[in-house]
Design brief:
By secondary structure, the protein is of the alpha+beta class. The chain has helices spanning about 15-30, 90-100; strands at about 1-5, 30, 40-45, 50-55, 60, 80. The chain is about 20% helix and about 20% strand.
Length: about 100
Amino acid sequence: MNYLELTGGKVNHNETMNETAIREAYEESGAVINESDIDYLGYYILPNGHTTTITKAEVSYFKDIPKYSETTERILTKEPLDKNLLSFQDGLYEEIFKYLGAYHE
């Protein structure tokens, strides 16, 4: 099986969900997205009680990944990634991409 990976992160003080999505997409991948392109898909709750929202948006364009980012590499591909390349291998990505209709085997 092959997989895709998502950007994500935590809300900064007084940020809206959309502001967080825009900032995290840029910080982690250099992706520039417009607020009007963000769609709310749902949420999940981790065992520790942390709630995570899931959004999707079309990328307008890519800039270089910011120097202050914890991300050091970006792979843009039409082919899904091998599971061993993912940051998390707990099955969550599989479920999200199945929901989006973008899951590949």
